[in-house]
Specification:
Two copies of one chain form a homodimer.
Chain A (H helix, E strand, L loop, with lengths): L28 H10 L14 E6 L1 H4 L19 H12 L6 E4 L7 H6 L1 H4 L7 E5 L2 H8 L7 H18 L4 E5 L19 H13 L3 E3 L1 H11 L2 H4 L8 H14 L2
Parallel strand pairs in A: 1-2, 1-3, 3-4, 4-5
Helix pairs in contact in A: 1-9, 1-11, 3-11, 7-8, 9-11
């Protein structure tokens, strides 16, 4: 379904390749992430370099109960209990000599415009070399349940504005864009979400291509995983992850940043 | 230094092999854990089986800020922010279809006798198939700083009593015993700790052999890691881990339980 989206070039963003494309069927659980992320000859990879500053941004899925008073990099409590913590632990182990600084500034409930409101404090000030963003499920969900009047066009415009602003400050920042995901038939997520929610996924991919960002196909990862073990094993409510689901996300993320 | 300890057989405990033995030099950080744990032909391994109930027990290193109100298995908050959480995430991902139940009941400050005091509630009630214990640094440390009058003989006797009690309740439980460790020249840990502290490490190995437990040589893992990257990268104070150190421990643990 992603094949129809044409990447638009931004000449200043040429150092990362194209996003991951193509579907895959996995046959065993440990290979799900591999199968779901490795297809696509032009799969974007980001290579960890010495002194990289890595920032995870997003909503509750990224937040994962982090200690918001703690400003230290690489800190257990400051990184929460989710995929950002798990990915950080792996990076700090695999790249021990590289003096990485890893931060998580996800905040529960956030939509794109709320990232924008706190961007000076929670992104620009941190000066990331690698910026990973997962945002969008609340842009849909809060609209769906009548708490927000944003549309898909607002999501797209807000996301572009946020990235343009980021690239003005850091022209060479390496971007990772996570696909918003929703696992159907688990508590909060029902047939009524679709196909409208899919537009948010497609838009995130479209933007990843447009900005030459690496793209993490979380929806595909959860879909594949849910073919093998019950969806409720991976997500508590269709939106938030269990620990197994957080690990699935971290593994997908680490396929792209290594 | 471990080679002189002779394992004593307990006939009821024959299903796990001998503990990991032998020293190793690692040449790169990701291979440290591998090098530090794989030597020894009779390396004990525990194979994860469907419906296994896995319990992590110990002191603050295991506790790692876990939510003690949360009694759910496999729960992000209940598992803390340390090696138990990281190991659990990996097991739940690698063995997704096996319906594992993973608990962390470590409590900060605990010595062996304090595990014993809460064993009915925090072990027997949980009915573990796999029981992982890391205890001993406080048995030494609190004695060293005058807050406790236990000796190495008390540690040994208390540890055996705890395991005998456990095996009476669960004759087939698979035991994992972690080596107490202390990283010299980082804050709390100084030359004054040695060689007295080493006796606690040796005793833990002796007991692991006696009870046919798998043994995780954490001291060797931290020693090897500290040859490559500053000790302070792996531990905050010589006793507690950074996130990188927690990952190092989880990787060592996962070499033995898989």
């Amino acid at each position: 379904m992603f094949g129809k989206i044409k990447p638009m070039d931004k000449s200043r963003r040429t150092f990362i390749g194209h996003s991951l494309m193509g579907a895959a069927l996995a046959v065993s659980i440990p290979s799900i992430v591999s199968a779901a992320t490795k297809r696509g000859a032009a799969a974007a990879k980001i290579k960890i370099e010495p002194n990289d500053v890595i920032l995870f941004q997003g909503d509750s899925i990224t937040d994962a109960g982090r200690d918001k008073e703690n400003q230290a990099p690489n800190n257990n409590r400051a990184l929460g209990n989710g995929y950002a913590f798990l990915a950080a632990a792996d990076l700090l182990h695999q790249h021990a000599a590289k003096q990485l600084s890893i931060f998580n500034k996800g905040i529960s409930g956030n939509k794109v415009h709320q990232l924008d409101e706190r961007w000076d404090e929670d992104c620009i000030r941190i000066k990331p070399n690698i910026l990973s963003i997962l945002i969008g499920v609340n842009d849909y969900w809060h609209m769906f349940n009548g708490k927000y009047d944003g549309t898909i066009q607002v999501y797209r415009d807000d996301y572009r504005k946020l990235l343009d602003r980021t690239l003005t400050a850091f022209p060479h920042v390496k971007l990772v864009i996570g696909e918003p995901f929703a696992v159907n038939n688990v508590k909060a997520v029902t047939d009524a979400w679709f196909p409208a929610f899919d537009e948010y996924r497609h838009t995130a991919l479209e933007i990843a291509n447009e900005y030459k960002a690496a793209f993490i196909p979380y929806q595909r990862v959860f879909n594949e995983a849910s073919k093998h073990v019950s969806p409720a094993y991976w997500t508590t409510d269709g939106v938030h992850t269990t620990l197994a689901g957080a690990k699935l996300m971290a593994e997908a993320w680490l396929r792209v940043v290594k």
